[in-house]
Specification:
This protein is α/β, with parallel strands linked by helices. The chain is built from eight helices and five strands, in the order E-H-E-H-E-H-H-E-H-H-E-H-H. Helix 3 crosses helix 6. The radius of gyration is 15 Å and the shape is globular. Bound molecules: flavin mononucleotide (FMN).
Length: 176
Amino acid sequence: MTDRTLYLVTCGAPLASRIGDGAQAARDRGWDPYVIPTDAALPWLEGQDLANVPVLTGNRAPGEPKCTPKADAVVVVPTTFNTLNAWANGNANTYPLTILCAALGSRTPTVAVPFAKHDLAGHPAWLASLAVLRYAGIRVVDPHDGSTASLEPLQSGTGDTVTARFEWDWVLRILG
Ligand SMILES: Cc1cc2nc3c(=O)[nH]c(=O)nc-3n(C[C@H](O)[C@H](O)[C@H](O)COP(=O)(O)O)c2cc1C
């Protein structure tokens, strides 16, 4: 065990199928990973090797003691159109969104890997939400090549290819 806690929030898009790899890569870099999936991400978790990785799926009951350490850093891989916009707007009506809004509010180091096709990324809310998140200090990583300077939407039908080529090092090296 280390004393560095990393929350791996994952949303409902193909790159969620790499979250087990991400937990392992985080461990290799000295993090204690916790996976926090949205409901829509759950189908992509099936069959992944998440042995010994806590998967947190809900809020604790009132009065139940807090048993998860505070995050030293958060990654959101992938960040869907839905979650990115909700997060930027301050919606905290699910456990993952509450974690993300609290991370933003507490300026916890956070890296997001947005994952949306052209049609969704063409919606005006997308660029506005990215601007809000970047302004608040969120580091945004392009899932195609790890760029932090630009972000390309996915071409239709390329989700699996982009997922296969994604490298966790692009995200984890930002956190040190
Ligand atoms: C097979 C499949 C692929 C999807 N791919 C994406 C995607 O690449 N990007 C995206 O923003 N939403 C994608 N979606 C839609 C999201 O899963 C949907 O908007 C969901 O409500 C997101 O919820 P979440 O943000 O809570 O994870 C996909 C859905 C399915 C069933």
